[in-house]
Amino acid sequence: METQLDAHCLAILDEYRENLPLFRETEAVVKQKLKDTFAEAGLLVAALESRIKTESSLAGKLELKGGKYKSLADITDIIGLRVITFYRDDVDKVASAVERHFKIDWENSVDKRKIHEIDSFGYLSLHYICSVSGCPYRFEIQMRTVLQHAWANMNHDTGYKSGVEVPRQYLRNLSRLAGMLELVDDEFSRIRAELTDYRRRVRALVASGDLDDVQLDGDTFRSYLELGPLDALNARIASVNQAEIQSASLMPYLPILKDFGMKTLGDVSRLIKDYSEAAYQIATFQMGLTDLDIISSTIGIQDICIAFVLKQGSGKAGIKFIFDSLNGESESNDMLAEMLTGTISNLPFMNQ
User: Residue 141 gets which letter from DSSP?
Assistant: First the structure.
């Protein structure tokens, strides 16, 4: 291919070869900077890709339009990076991060999202031409969603690589599909925004104390636990042996509480209030038989659940259900349930 290039294009290729180490270093620096920035911002992206244009690819580009470039510095995509996001609105967040850390060549950058042709969905990327100190060569960062990326790849395969002109009816079907995918992309972002708003409203309701108005689900239970409704009970239990409380997730108890018939956070709050004394009696009885100096933060809610099923008359089967739900079914759960049923049945709360 080199024999088809003139002296000017060959000089550009020589410049490319000489600067390959610089390109590799710049690619690594820029990619790491983006990773660090996304991590700091808590921004989860689907993929962060990068590549350096190969010599053969550059030679092909020069063969087609080498006269357009005065030097290698005029070619803006020797280094290319692509950030693929899950949501459309995250593209703007990525763009903001890029703008903060790199110098943007606005004249040569392109926001293809402003294109409105019906078949443009897969090409609605945001393209920034950037530069960084220490490297005289610009580089390109493309930003688009997972669906846009998938569509661009599929459309490229079906529309171009075959080398055959695609019949009009197939192009129409591809365009219809592109429109559907664009709607899906928008819908994902809309649903996320609505869920975010729902969680804000839930946190506000929980903080206000209007717990009977808050339906029990994963988000609401997690927000409720942030208030530490079991902290006082756990501290009281820990004081028996001056034990240290080791933090653990209480979320596995959500399905158990739902099985108990809990519908709202108000129901859960009343359960804790009504059975905390019983849970304390169970815990102190168990700890009195040991010299445990470390306990799990789940001890309070576990013994509340045990006390509840015993007072409801579920006995051994109720306790076994709790441990089966938490740990999976096993014979050891059956043995533990039988032992607890026999020992706890004589505690004061059972006769109240």
Answer: E
Q: CATH number for the 2-152 domain, one of 3.40.190.10, 3.30.460.10, 3.30.420.40, 3.90.1150.10?
A: 3.30.460.10
Using the 8-state DSSP alphabet, how is residue 264 labeled?
B
pTM of the model: 0.61
Tokens of 325: 């739900």
From first CA to last CA, the distance across the chain in angstroms is: 93
* Residue 329 φ/ψ, nearest 5 degrees: -65, 140
3-state secondary structure of 174: helix
Q: Which residue has the tokens 């960084």?
A: 132
Task: Encode pLDDT of 33-63 as tens digits.
Answer: 999 999 998 999 999 999 999 999 999 888 8
Kindly list the domain boundaries of the chain, sorted by start residue. 2-152, 229-351
Q: Are 55 and 102 in contact (CB under 8 A)?
A: no
Element (H, E) at 339: helix 331-344
